[in-house]
Specification:
The protein is mostly beta strands. Helices cover 0% and strands 48% of the residues. The chain is elongated. Residues 163-167 have low confidence and may be disordered.
Length: 656
């Protein structure tokens, strides 16, 4: 006996695989109609031959729900992984391995089970592997469904009950002193299987209303119908966070309460057509109050000779701040902390005397002195003094004192990084320079100090991420020099507009808030291109006399045909004529069609009984009927960008 193969199925890490759990949105809704925008759950596996003999491996699905699973394999030239008909055979050399993929696309909700069987087709071996496939058709609404949640004061989100397009919860903001700001988040989530397109996101003072003076949308950048934000279960991008800022302005006594609305336009079918559009609305509430304490001056640059820092003449490395009680009751300083440490001292700044516990009567002033330790490297910090009313310890406001010392650096980056590529992933470099731009287009670094980059990061995003070269914390960039990183964009299949933020935290005080932070906008504005939609219909020859495209009289999902009623040669026309491709603005025909005859194939028939059955064929095919049985025809279409539709099936029950 010669050398024998020994086949194994592994995951990509090389670990043996005996079972596979997977889940995906059903391809049909409750009325057995195709759901657009769903894609299979695809898992990458490895077929390994650990034996010493070559094998002709035969891969097939068996079991009750085998039709919900499909196999994807790459061409021998290393091309894309395409769906292949099973049983599928492939040669595998000794001690070699091949990657293949299993896709789960259930037609309905609930559990599905099957087995992936690999047969080396040799009677001498007994090691043919079997993988148990356990799938779950997700019990989610078939149509796009908007769900909202609001940030809780202690962190996390409270889900809003969404039985209608109006959410029954509010986004509440804490007491905020006039002239100050606080931000809170709203989470938008698509809990349906269909892709949710957010075409409008705005903050207004009333309905329908004008923009609010007290609330504003900080991120993401407002979408539009031409460049929607796409929330898709299929892409794994089913949620996003919107940041709302509350910045109340003093309108006089008796006007402390503020309200507004976050308005969300989307394709959630619970929203009526545009003529009667009632978008999703979330109530915003906040309260402003006048701070009892104020500070003069509010900042000090110890290294700039023209900044007197509260003294005349200027005292080197010492600043004086005058804290005044503008309220109508006595207040007490309850805390004094530096932003860099959270303590009453920092590495470069300290208080000459402890201010905590000091009491100020109405109209009184407290002098607070800050000492600076002089070093060349430029630093920024912030001293915050909190006050409470002595009568009831209620908040009386706070003051923040900006502190600067050393030679100021000159952070220079682009304001926006724009991605226009249509590929699944693309990368753009980001160059961070230490220089000052000049009006004539040139640059100058002669007066710039050392730039210290505390942090370079991308705000958490499903679309954008930092990639090599990465910039380490506390990287120093000399005057006139630069460092470089890169941002990667992961484009969802349907395109659309995605927004992100690159945050650069440095010792350059020109940027903020927060102090020393520059935000670079990450913008991807590829056109919205949902997957095409396949429609499969069947017609017997007599139905084609007045309907040559099998569009009007054609039957979907299932049809019954009697062989005795057909003329020779007996056949059925299957048509994809009604399939569509909507690119966001125009509906057209798909670019490619492929018809397949699925297993199990009735006796006397074969895959070639359906012709043509190759990708790129015409929008119709002829199925020859050599005898009775259940013929299962499948259609999949592609758009001009190669984006596939969900496969659709037609069951043709042929009787004698």
């Amino acid at each position: 006996m010669g050398s024998l193969p020994e086949l194994r199925i592994r995951d990509l890490s090389g670990a043996p695989l005996a079972s596979l759990d997977t889940s995906a949105c059903p391809t049909l809704d409750e009325n057995q109609r195709p759901v657009s925008g769903t894609v299979p759950d695809v898992r990458r596996l490895q077929l390994a031959n650990i034996g010493d003999g070559r094998a002709r491996a035969r891969l097939s699905f068996q079991g009750r729900d085998s039709a919900s699973f499909s196999l994807q394999a790459a061409a021998v030239d290393g091309g894309a992984f395409d769906r292949v008909q099973t049983p599928f055979e492939v040669d595998i050399a000794p001690r070699a391995s091949l990657e293949f993929r299993v896709a789960f696309a259930p037609a309905q909700r609930g559990a599905a089970a099957a087995e992936l069987v690999v047969d080396d087709q040799l009677p001498q071996t007994t090691t043919d592997p079997v993988v148990s496939l356990v799938g779950t058709g997700l019990s989610l609404p078939s149509q796009p469904t908007l769900e909202t949640g609001v940030e809780r004061p202690g962190g996390g989100f409270s889900q809003c009950t969404d039985t209608a397009t109006l959410s029954d919860c509010e986004l509440m903001f804490p007491l905020v002193a006039y002239g100050s700001t606080v931000s809170r988040k709203v989470i938008l989530r698509n809990r349906g299987c269909g892709g949710l397109q957010v075409t409008g996101l705005r903050v207004v003072s009333s309905l329908p209303g004008a923009p609010s003076a007290d609330f504003r949308l900080e991120s993401p950048r407002a979408p539009s119908s031409g460049a929607p934000l796409t929330l898709s279960q299929a892409d794994g991008t089913s949620s996003l966070e919107a940041v709302i800022v509350f910045a109340p302005q003093d309108q006089g006594p008796g006007n402390e309460l503020r309200s507004g609305f976050l308005v969300v336009d989307s394709n959630d079918p619970r929203q009526p057509p545009p003529a009667q559009a009632q978008p999703a609305v979330l109530l915003l509430r906040g309260e402003g109050f006048p701070s009892a304490i104020a500070a003069t001056p509010s900042s000090c640059d110890f290294s700039r000779s023209t900044d007197l820092c509260g003294s005349s003449p200027k005292v080197p490395n010492r600043a004086r701040f005058f804290i005044r009680n503008d309220g109508n009751g006595p207040v007490r300083i309850s805390s004094a902390t530096f932003a860099s440490t959270g303590l009453a001292t920092s590495s470069r700044f300290s208080l000459a005397a402890n201010a905590v516990g000091a009491t100020l009567q109405p109209g009184a002033t407290l002098t607070v002195e800050v000492i600076h330790t002089d070093l060349p490297t430029y630093v920024i910090d912030e001293l915050t003094l909190q006050a409470v009313f002595t009568q009831n310890a209620a908040p009386a406001g706070s003051v923040s004192l900006a502190l600067f010392g050393g030679r100021q650096p000159c952070l220079d980056t682009p304001d926006d990084v724009t991605f226009t590529s249509t590929t699944p992933t693309s990368t753009q470099p980001v160059i961070i320079r230490n220089q000052r731009r000049l009006p004539d287009g040139g640059s100058d670094a002669s007066s710039c100090g050392t730039l210290v980059l505390s942090q370079v990061r991308v705000e958490p995003s499903q679309f954008f991420s930092l990639t090599a070269p990465l910039i380490a914390p506390n990287t120093q960039v000399p005057a006139g020099a630069f460092v470089q990183s890169a941002v990667q964009y992961n484009r969802p299949a349907s395109g659309g507009m995605q927004i992100g933020k690159l945050m650069i935290v440095s010792n350059d005080p020109f940027f903020g808030p927060p102090l020393g932070t520059k935000e670079v906008n990450l913008i991807a504005a590829s056109s919205f291109d949902p997957p095409p939609r396949a429609v499969l219909k069947g017609c017997v020859p007599s139905m084609l006399l007045n309907d040559p495209n099998c569009s009007i009289s054609g039957l979907e999902l299932q049809m019954t045909v009697s062989l005795a009623s057909l003329l020779t040669p007996r056949s059925v026309l299957v048509s994809g004529f009604d399939s569509t491709d909507f690119d966001g603005t125009t509906t057209r025909r798909p670019a490619e069609y492929q018809f397949r005859l699925m297993n199990p194939i009735p006796a006397g028939a074969s895959a070639s009984s359906l012709s043509p059955n190759t990708r790129g064929a015409a929008d119709r095919a002829t199925l020859m009927l050599p005898g009775p049985g259940l013929y299962r025809v499948q259609l999949q279409v592609w758009d001009s960008a190669g984006q596939p539709s969900m496969p659709v099936n037609l069951n043709i029950n042929v009787t004698p």
